[in-house]
Amino acid sequence: MAERTPAAVDIAVLDTFPKVLAHNAVARGERPAMREKDLGIWQSWSWADVAAEVRALACGLKALGVARGDKVAIIGDNRPRLYWSIVAAQAVGAVPVPMYQDSVADELCYVIEHAEARFAIVEDQEQIDKLLEIKDRCPHLSVMIYDDVRGLRGYTEDFLHSYEAALDKGRAYDRDNPNFYDESVALGGAEDVSIMLYTSGTTGQPKGVVLTHRNVMATAQNSARADKLVETDEVLAYLPMAWVGDHIFSFGQSYVTGFCVACPESSDTVLNDVWELGPTYFFAPPRIYENLITTVMIRMEDAGWLKRKAFHYFMDLAKRVGSDILDGRNVGLGDRLLYKLGNILVFGPLRNSLGMSRVRLAYTAGEAIGPDIFNFYRSIGLNLKQLYGMTEASVFVTMQPDGEIKDDSVGKAAPEVDIKIDETGEVLFRSPGVFREYYKNPEATAEAKTPDGWVHTGDAGFVDDDGHLKIIDRAKDVGKLVSGDLFAPKYIENKLKFYPHITEAVAYGDGRDFVAAFINIDLEAVGDWAERRGIPYASYQELAANGGVQALIEEEVRQVNADLAQEPRLAGSQIRRFLILHKALDADDGELTRTRKVRRRFVAEKYADLIDALYSGAATCHAETEMTFEDGRTGTITAELHIQDVTADAPGFSAAAE
């Protein structure tokens, strides 16, 4: 399909999302705005359809008592009606507050009570049940609206309303008050609160980040223009709606460019839905790209010898010249011809199997991606870029311009963004996307923002000679070994997670003689490895304790050490000891945030005895840990963990480690 020049969105005039929606309903009314796969069938809504639905829902909210300034909690998987709820709330002057759909009831309780949310629009019975469990502790919460009626027909509370009932109320209100909606939208302005997004709470309780329409719209439009996004693009919305990345990619950029956003049938069908849809624009955090590589490597292990040989031959070629070809650099004719053959035999089918045949722009962010993983995708022809951002910036701080992609940088300052490094090495920025405040937390706001508009990122980094920002680690996490060697845990952890058998790692070393690490194995990848070798196991715990698995992970740690040995600034940070944890780190156990980031301080406190054992010289240690099972029950598991030494067989180990 040929690209069209999108109808211009002048955000100086169309300064709120409800106003942009009204514009899109006229300028591109018949173009698809959203899709959703339901019962195996893709359904579509045009911009005109969305505008009519939002109008009815906004009037329904008004009829149910929503007032300007009210907070509206939005909870559920990626569903068109939940995205429309955001604009409907904005249209009546309310503030949408998306929340993580997999949060347990207590986590929801904190955010709802802190935000003083009076209304909630949720996906289904699961979310209603969680809200009913905490309603007594959330006195502000007075009305709940649900989309999926399954399981809820017997719920008779008068504060419960189906989405359809809310629409019916809205249409009736609109007939009786035909000027209300347009007048309410006209009252909105650029400095009104557009959305409130809560941080993941890596180091404490989540904070409510208040973003205005100007914040979100300016960064969405600047970034879309920089990467030439147009209305014919299409993206799959599958990441949590409570995450700022999804809000920009699946909402903000869509509105200002007019491209279509598709919602998967369920979280379990995302990979298949990506393959069916064939998006042109794709975003995923590093963990998703890591998991996809794991899937590819498992398939290759199960393939015939000829297919494996061809795969590895062409992947070696791609590693050597693929990124240069993608960036338009000079590559010899012979290698170009071989790469074209590889594209027919390996790279093209591989991109197709991942659902990325049509992707012309892919992004990753959220945390640093390992250079090996990044280069893998670029080498097979995927235009993958890194960006650096945060909720407080409305995402974009840096972007990687076409033709200037580096695997060890996060790019240059995004349009209208200024960056500086302070005397401690911390990265600061200012931009149109800078958040207004942390809700009800002026002390934290004052800590984060300087009087002249600069924002502390909490990350340590530097700008290289080409103007590219390089992030070393969280400023508070960067440390030194006793020897004085630099210790950057996230960098080490990302190198470990490149290997398909390792799904998570936590490195320690600040103020210590050497680096040690906790490792989580990938149950699917290691399980496949074990089954092909006839190794029986009944659980993650059994597999993690297997001697063969220990040897497998030790070899991968050795390879990481060999890589680190080639990097002068980090050669002393090679891993001397590690253990494989007896359980997977889990958000339900407080070890990860809902965006799957390690809560480093919590893990260090919870497993302090295991860290002590790593540095004691002991060969084994006893572990007793409480965990939450899938059905919500809690229990205690115990294990005797083996601690593996890694010999200093690569250059660069500090003398203090010997």
N-to-C span: 62 Å
How does the helix and strand content classify structurally?
alpha/beta
Q: Domains counted in the coordinates: how many?
A: 3
- The number of helical segments is 21
Strand order, main sheet: write it out: 4-3-5-6-7
Quaternary organization: single chain
Task: Walk me through the structure.
Helix 4 (105-115) packs across helix 5 (125-134). This protein is an alpha/beta fold and 658 residues long. The protein has 21 helices and 29 strands. A five-stranded parallel β-sheet has the order 4-3-5-6-7, with helices on both faces. The chain has a five-stranded mixed β-sheet with strand order 25-26-27-29-28, sandwiched between helices. A four-stranded mixed β-sheet has the order 2-1-11-10, sandwiched between helices. The chain starts with 16 loop residues before the first helix and ends in a 13-residue tail after the last strand. Mean pLDDT is 91; it is low at 1-6 and 654-658. The protein is 38% helix and 22% strand.
Quick recap of the structure?
The chain has 21 helices and 29 strands. It starts with 16 loop residues before the first helix and ends in a 13-residue tail after the last strand.
Walk me through the topology.
Elements: H1 17-27, E1 32-38, E2 41-46, H2 47-63, E3 71-75, H3 80-91, E4 95-99, H4 105-115, E5 117-122, H5 125-134, E6 143-146, E7 160-162, H6 163-176, H7 180-187, E8 193-198, E9 208-212, H8 213-226, E10 234-236, H9 244-257, E11 260-263, H10 270-277, E12 281-283, H11 286-302, H12 305-326, H13 333-353, E13 361-364, H14 371-379, E14 384-386, E15 388-390, E16 395-399, E17 412-413, E18 418-421, E19 426-430, E20 437-438, H15 442-448, E21 455-463, E22 469-474, E23 479-480, E24 486-487, H16 489-497, E25 502-508, E26 515-521, H17 523-532, H18 540-545, H19 547-565, E27 575-580, H20 600-606, H21 608-614, E28 620-628, E29 634-645
Helix pairs in contact: 1-2, 2-3, 2-6, 4-5, 8-9, 12-13, 12-14
